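Write out this protein's structure.
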Amino acid sequence: MNDFQAIADRVEIEALRGEFTDAAMMRDRARLASLFTPDGALRMPNIPVEQVGREEILAGGERLQSQWDFFVQTTHPGTILLDGDTATGRAYIQELARALDGRQGLNYAVYHDRYQRTDEGWKFAERVYEVRYLDTSPLAGTAPRAPQPSGAASADATAPPAPAASFAEPASAERLERTAAALRANGFAAEILDDAAAARIRVKDLVPEGASVFTGASETLRLSGIDEDINTGDRYDAIRPRVLTIDRATGADEIRKLVATPEYVVNSVAAVTETGSLVLASGSGSQLPANAGGAAHAVWIVGAQKVVPDLGTALRRVEEHALPLEDARAQAVYGMPSAVNRLLILNAEPRPGRGTVLLLREAIGY
């Protein structure tokens, strides 16, 4: 191999590594998978992940991408050792990331690479990811907000995370309107009501008499009287009172089916974002399937203090505001602590007319 060919190979391999980072940053998983040979492998032993072949690399990347709030990767050049139509090398990585479930951190890592010359140019035969340093301390920054719906007021994309104190303060009329517009753009029906009394009346309009209804464990429903309206009397086929009569040891399957697939679920949320997402948190997870799609219809009643700018702030609200309050309630009622063991994030409603969000101008619940 002459010197000019060696230089050209090094330049092309370096471009390949840069293309990998660009595809990751641009969330172009198909392009990223195409950078590997058909039987190429991406291995991350610390996760652990092992993906062999372009289809596995594409599918695995899409799963990972769906969990991100934000992700930033920087690649620093490393060594390249050429050997004819193959080569080995290392690239040095710095990453900042926050997942939608709240996991976050900074890490420094090494990609140990094998490269293969193909008819399409140099490709990765294998990338093995080795973490050298990991810091999971909370990140101070936040991801820029997604573009607002047409006609909505613009917001400062670099605004710092909301202070915890603001998690109890009702959102302004402008923010409620912006949130409602974003929810509608994402497929939810959204209404802005004055208070819990208005929501109580509206729920009776939305949920027909005789329907099977499951209510989530919610302070908003309890304080508003909606829980009582649904679970007492004979207006509805209320699921929760039925569940309380079933022996949990022998009737676990029956309970699971009842709460997962009611005709209607009525609940609140831990946070709603100005970009049109709903966030629900649960200790057991039993109430989440109905909200996610198991129920044919869903109604969520949301106090104005639950409006936050984005998903990152929503997850902070869950951990810093809602969890301590729920923990205190659980200790008093059940004698045991609460925990955020399950999170449900609804970014859109693919079934038009299924989900209705009643945004209140007043603060209620937590």
